[in-house]
Backbone:
């Protein structure tokens, strides 16, 4: 803040935000939106997979397990983004890259061998059931985290 001698120094808060949030840009609109979308996808994928694993496991176990994995990945990225700091940023970056590999792998697999997936996963058909957000989300996350590293 203007007039605050600690503003801009390591360990200080900027405009009432912790240093880590200020450094990763999560206090800004696009950063908040990214965290919110990851949070929504965490809840959506987790609730769907929990229900399917309990009530329908025998119908498509691979699909439901992959949905649970995607929920865990989304949750880890959400927590890392909120936590901030260089270690969390690096962990989120690696996890976003792994998420992108997962979406591309599962998306391709579901198109190449539809019989392997009698039911959809979050990442099926590159996230078509979720308006393709699952394919764009890790790319956006990687770009944001790369920008945060430079900033």
Residues:
């Amino acid at each position: 803040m203007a007039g605050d001698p600690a503003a801009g120094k390591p360990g200080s808060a900027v405009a009432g935000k912790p240093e880590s949030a200020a450094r990763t840009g999560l206090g800004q609109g696009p950063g908040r939106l990214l965290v919110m979308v990851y949070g929504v996808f965490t809840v959506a994928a987790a609730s769907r997979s929990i229900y399917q694993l309990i009530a329908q496991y025998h119908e498509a176990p691979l699909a439901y397990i992959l949905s649970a994995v995607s929920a865990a990945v989304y949750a880890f990225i959400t927590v890392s983004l909120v936590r901030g700091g260089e270690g969390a940023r690096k962990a989120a970056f690696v996890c976003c890259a792994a998420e992108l590999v997962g979406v591309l792998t599962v998306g391709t697999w579901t198109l190449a061998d539809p019989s392997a997936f009698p039911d959809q996963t979050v990442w099926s058909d590159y996230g078509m059931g979720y308006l393709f957000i699952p394919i764009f989300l890790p790319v956006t996350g990687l770009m944001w985290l790369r920008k945060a590293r430079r900033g």
In short: The longest helix spans residues 29-55. The two ends are 18 Å apart (CA to CA). Residues 24-150 form one domain. The CA atoms of residues 89 and 145 lie 7 Å apart.
